[in-house]
Amino acid sequence: MSTPDLSMSHPDAPLIEVDLEHAAPHGYTSNKDAYLKRLKRIEGQVRGIARMVEDDKYCIDILTQVAAATKALHAVSLGLVEEHIGHCVVGAASEPNPEARAEQIDAKVKEATDAIGRLLR
Predict the structure, then answer these.
(1) How many other β-carbons are positioned within 10 Å of the β-carbon of residue 84?
(2) Is the separation of the CB atoms in 69 and 42 below 8 Å?
(3) Cystine design at 92: which of 31, 45, 52, 104 (Cβ 3.0–4.6 Å)?
(4) Tens digits of per-residue pLDDT, 46-85?
(5) SS3 per residue for the chain
């Protein structure tokens, strides 16, 4: 028995792949507006740093602003790691199948530790 073709796209349309594992609401979804607001502020900080360089400002003053922007990005990063652990890792722990649960928890914890490793480099 063959599976029917349920696609409704034009035959020449590009195929768009959807990652269903990550399609559900993310842990940060409830704080999305706050993250976006914070990132827009950081974006403004970085533009200000670029202006400082363009205006030949004192290097230590520029480095001070770079440190402030870096600290702000780290705060966003830590928030996202916390959201990942609280949502994705805990969600994996609710898997009813014990073998699948162990695999999912391991995968989500590895994602978190890999992300933390990238932040520390």
Answers:
(1) 20
(2) yes
(3) 104
(4) 999 999 999 999 999 999 999 999 999 999 999 999 998 8
(5) CCCCCCCCCCCCCCCCCCCHHHCCCCCCHHHHHHHHHHHHHHHHHHHHHHHHHHCCCCHHHHHHHHHHHHHHHHHHHHHHHHHHHHHHHHHHHCCCCHHHHHHHHHHHHHHHHHHHHHHHC
